[in-house]
Design a protein that fits this description.
2 domains; 374 residues; alpha+beta; 9 helices; 4-stranded antiparallel sheet; Aminopeptidase
């Protein structure tokens, strides 16, 4: 049975470890998690892809040649910054709220998972699948020292995965794709008093950007996601106020739906730009493909059933932002995300989570792990 007092003690301990990223150092918190799981009978391995950036990979084996399920929260947090009124590394309970850096993102979820596993082992439950637990580094800076190399180097293998990094009992079943690009335009320099003698690259950029926004309408609606978006993150150009700009560059953030592709988005961009100029260059800075899983997949149905059995209403949802789910897609591992933090509290000063949600989250994971059928 999930022990609320033990759960609170665990989350307090996790918050006390400084794993702010940057600078990034997960050694202390990873050591605690590894020792905790080892004491419960897990086989522990550590992987470090840069000094101090420790990942814990723990396995509780059921029997040979059986299926496996992965639970994976992350160990790092964003920096606290200077706006906190409470001590970010010292958990403080006020009513039903527990304050501290990482309470929502993502040490609260980590504590829920540890407590659920503790309860299962304590009750003598024997799972009929191999349970893998990966507590990873560097999620807040892109996972290049954590989940990505663990998956790409085939260190971490699983038949299905649950990412513990979401809020308020949502179950993330789909996610937008992401593409970051830089567009560079060239014009013709002239005196500012005689703009007709030059070609202003900034003017061209402005027309391209407006056209991109106006024409971004061709898509099939998604039940869980808003429309595809284009954000202009930066724009630079020109050398002086009285000179016609012969250069301009701007960065675009494309978010696109499952069913759309980066190739289609690139063609859309090139077609739009070429209506205004042939003198341009596109630099692709990063791509993450969109993701979706069948809402009737055993991962989803098992988690929905666990929540409903405890009187909790599950929320199937989509992620507008990029999460680590897409890293599993690249390895053909079905994955969902869930979590029990407080929506809107990640990355804020005086971050908090609700104790009742963390307690119920641990109970949900306990029921889910006991009853999961792959």
């Amino acid at each position: 049975m999930v022990n609320k007092n033990r759960l609170i003690k665990t989350i307090k301990k996790l918050i006390s470890f400084d794993s702010q990223n940057p600078p990034g150092d997960e050694r202390q918190i990873a050591g605690f998690v590894g020792a905790y799981l080892k004491n419960l009978g897990f086989k522990i391995k550590t992987y470090t892809f840069s000094a101090g950036r420790v990942n814990i990979l723990a396995t509780l084996s059921a029997r040979k040649n059986t299926q496996s399920l992965l639970l994976t929260p992350h160990l790092d947090t964003v920096p606290a910054g200077k706006s906190w009124k409470k001590s970010p590394l010292e958990a403080k309970i006020i009513g039903n709220k527990i304050y501290g850096l990482g309470t929502t993102d993502c040490k609260g979820n980590l504590a829920c998972a540890l407590e659920a596993i503790n309860s299962i082992v304590e009750d003598g439950v024997k799972l009929d699948y191999n349970l893998i637990f990966a507590a990873t580094a560097d999620e807040e800076s892109g996972s290049s020292l954590g989940l990505i190399p663990l998956l790409e180097r085939k260190i971490l293998k699983a038949d299905a995965a649950v990412v513990l990094d979401a809020d308020d009992f949502e179950i993330v079943v789909t996610q937008k794709g992401l593409m970051h690009l830089k567009v560079s335009l060239k014009g013709k320099k002239a005196h500012g008093a005689y703009p007709w003698l030059g070609t202003n690259a900034i003017d061209i950029a402005a027309r391209i950007i407006m056209d991109l926004k106006n024409r971004n309408k061709n898509y099939t609606k998604n039940k869980y996601l808003r429309e595809p978006t284009i954000n202009v993150g930066t724009i630079k150009g020109g050398d002086k106020v009285n000179v016609v700009s012969d250069w301009c560059e701007f960065e675009l953030d494309f978010r696109f739906l499952p069913g759309q592709s980066e190739k289609e988005r690139l063609n859309f961009l090139r077609k739009t730009i070429s209506q205004y100029t042939k003198n341009y260059k596109i630099e692709i800075q990063g791509i993450q493909n969109p993701y979706r899983i069948d809402p009737h997949h055993p991962l989803v149905s098992s988690l929905v059933s666990a929540m409903k059995s405890l009187g909790i209403k599950p929320r199937l949802s989509g992620s507008e932002g990029a999460t680590v789910i897409t890293f599993f897609k690249a390895q053909n591992i079905p994955a969902i995300a869930t979590g029990f933090g407080k929506e809107g509290c990640a990355h804020i000063a005086d971050e908090y989570a609700c104790l009742s949600s963390l307690y119920n989250g641990a109970r949900v994971l306990e029921v889910f792990l006991k009853n999961y059928k792959n």
